[in-house]
Amino acid sequence: MTFKEYNRFFLLACAPFIGLLIWLFSAGFTLEMPRLGFAPSLQPFAVTEVANGIHTSLDTAKGNAAATKSTIEKFYQLYEQSSNDMNAMLKLAVAQAGRPAAIFDNRIAAEFGKPIRTVSSANIDLRLYQFTDPNYKGYALKVDLKSDKAMQMALGKDKLGSSETTLAAASRLGAVAGINAGGFADTDDGRRFPLSTTMLNGKYVYGFEPTFDNLAFVGLSTDRKLIGGKFAKQADLDKLNPSFGATFVPILLKSGAKQVIPAQWQNSPKRAPRTVVGNFGNNQLLFLVADGYNERGGSGATLMELQDKLAKLHIVDAYNLDGGGSTSLIFEGKTINNPSDGRLRPLPTNFLFFK
Asked: Each residue of 48-70: pLDDT tens digit?
């Protein structure tokens, strides 16, 4: 297209719009623009109103802070009171914990007087008493075991079938005290074996043997408690977690109740040197040793006399250990009782106490 043709095309295209504008102007048409302004609800807040709101919020925060402070102070006072109450309860518990031992000590003191010798260490507390009854003289040894090392049972010369005196065993193993343990049986070749069921270091020395002829096992559990009695099955004894123990006859007390003493043990012999063991309610042990100059029945104590004395002291469980010439009480390297054989008898088992 030529230049003239372009001009003609655009002139024709714009003609309607140009005509519309000429008509608007000639008709006097006007267009009013809206005025700008603020609605009453959108007016700016006054400075005083804002300040009043902030002041109110500050007052509220101040009140909340005061309430929080009061609550914290009350909780602190409550904590302090609770702490004081707990300390008082702890002191009372400590004092109460010592009462049973004091009660038992008072019972023993009332019966035997003051101890003639004492030993105290981190492992053990030992108190040795001497007493005189109308029919016999004797000794009492109270034992408080504080650790697993405090008390052990020893085989004679650490060998099954061998024997040694309680003094020799205590000296050899460094024990501060010792006392004879279970019964024994001799063989024709001169060996001396523990009687029936015997345990050492948690193991049966030569197997479990069901109770017969009123025999009773007596020893200590792994948690240092006196255990004993008659057992038909090994499982029944195993339930008590035995650590060591020996066997003899008879049972004297069970749960504080006197047990029937078999007739043959009431009269064969009637009186004799005796060794018995029992436990208090706090698991401390008490050994009684009765002196006698022979085994013919005319000296020493009867089992019923020792049973009565143990019951009077509120012993829980009690057992008779080997007696007669076997009765032996060693304390700090010396023989305390008067052995009826005139000398200490070699034994296959001894209870030893270590400082």
From this structure: 666 677 667 767 767 776 766 67
Q: DSSP 3-state assignment of 41? A: helix
Amino acid, single-letter form, for residue 222: T
- H helices of the chain, where? 3-27, 47-112, 166-173, 234-238, 263-267, 303-312
Pick from 215, 119, 109, 221: which is nearest to 170 by CA? 119
For range 71-94, the mean pLDDT: 63
Averaged pLDDT for residues 93-114: 74
- Give every CB contact of residue 100 below 8 A, 6+ residues apart in sequence: 280, 281, 282
pLDDT at position 33 is: 52
Looking at this protein, which amino acid is placed at residue 289?
A: V
Total residue length of the chain: 355
- The radius of gyration computed from the CA coordinates of the chain, to the nearest angstrom, equals 49
CB atoms within 10 A of CB 63: 10
**pTM of the predicted protein model:** 0.74
